[in-house]
Amino acid sequence: MKLPRDLSGKELVKALAHLEYKVSHQTGSHIRLTTQLNGEHHVTVPAHDPIKIGTLNAILKDIASHHNFDKDELIVLLFYS
């Protein structure tokens, strides 16, 4: 599944709300999100527009690993549902 190429940090934060990620704090242009779903997990999202594709890929791989999803399943869940 192809990653979205024009996704902003704020759009990613909204999409991650589907997995119960909530903003815990923000320092400068970095937003820290936390979820308690499947155990506590933290992820840092840059508030850039757009997020660089390699950065987005790394964030999604980390989230997919925590939730025991395939990365493609996570992309469908977040952006195509």
Automatic annotation (TrEMBL):
<dbReference type="GO" id="GO:0004519">
    <property type="term" value="F:endonuclease activity"/>
</dbReference>
<keyword id="KW-0540">Nuclease</keyword>
<keyword id="KW-0346">Stress response</keyword>
<protein>
    <recommendedName>
        <fullName>YcfA</fullName>
    </recommendedName>
</protein>
<comment type="similarity">
    <text>Belongs to the HicA mRNA interferase family.</text>
</comment>
<keyword id="KW-0378">Hydrolase</keyword>
<keyword id="KW-1277">Toxin-antitoxin system</keyword>
<dbReference type="Pfam" id="PF07927">
    <property type="entry name" value="HicA_toxin"/>
</dbReference>
<dbReference type="InterPro" id="IPR038570">
    <property type="entry name" value="HicA_sf"/>
</dbReference>
<dbReference type="GO" id="GO:0016787">
    <property type="term" value="F:hydrolase activity"/>
</dbReference>
<keyword id="KW-0255">Endonuclease</keyword>
<keyword id="KW-0694">RNA-binding</keyword>
<dbReference type="InterPro" id="IPR012933">
    <property type="entry name" value="HicA_mRNA_interferase"/>
</dbReference>
<dbReference type="GO" id="GO:0003729">
    <property type="term" value="F:mRNA binding"/>
</dbReference>
